[in-house]
Amino acid sequence: MILAAGQGTRVRPLTKDLPKPMVPILDKPLMEYQIEHLARHGITEIMVNVAYHHQEIERYFGDGNRWGVQIGYSYEGVLDHGDILPRPMGSAGGMRRIQDFSGFFDTTTLVLCGDALIDLDIGAALHEHKAKGAIASVVALDVPLAEVQSYGIVVAGSDGKIQSFQEKPSPAEAKSTLASTGIYIFEPAALELIPSGKVYDIGSNLFPQLVEKELPFYVQNRFFNWIDIGRVSDYWSVLQRVLRGEVAEVNMPGRQIKPGIWVGLNISVPWDKVTIEGPVYIGSSVRIEPGATITGPAWIGHGSHIRTGAKVVRSILFDYTRIAADMRFSEMIVSPDYCVDRHGDTLYRGDDTSQLRWGDARA
Question: What is the mean pLDDT of residues 57-71?
């Protein structure tokens, strides 16, 4: 089960016209990496709950045949005055809706939030879940004490049985350093505790029930890469790591023509008249004019145009972005309509208060 019905408000404007699982990482949606990872571990039946911009997910992934899996969708919405409006049921409520509809979750189920890159050893996690006789398991990572305020913290006994949760505690208040990764394993009996037809959340509603009833509910402290994109600043940081080759199972597309420089098809670059320092990916049909400078890690989306004298430094250019002559964009995410710095501050094209000039390369 991939949870994909949320609005992704914390990563706007990246999610203005896209659901969060469709935010691109090197020309592939974030959720595609998850599906590939599930397929590698033999998980071939995947349900996705959708709501906001659901068509984007459904059109791209279809029935999943391309990845050797089967994908089904559960739309969560209502008819209001003739309009079909998204109305998410909550992470647990969405699962119960599917269960009531078809009984799909009739065996052990892995649940993922659709907003993270992971390389979890799924087989090992399932083995530990079953060995403990768990009705539910939370996969967690040990984080530095100074960072606990950014996470939901799991408090457990020496045997791993979960006792309580703390939502973003201060370091002084934290009773644990185990951060929930939003990866869960459920037995069908756990879903029976979720009320039908109600908005219900896994973390704030279902988990307290499991603790209160003293059911076999365990945390798994696993070591793996979990790269959460909770904020715009996280997205910039993740892309920097990906471009430096630090994220497993995420490979640079295109072909490498020089050390640290990868390109797509049909690019126009006067190599002897530009300065390009990798790692850099230059997408298809990109045009870079003489005198331009690109300093990596950088990703130049397909159809983009960088004018003469422009400097792009440790930045991400979405598809069809034009950077005006002599402009300097440093540590930014830039689309044809907006640009966001690494801290999440946003400017929109045409803003008179900004000295930066950029636009749509198709215009």
Answer: 95
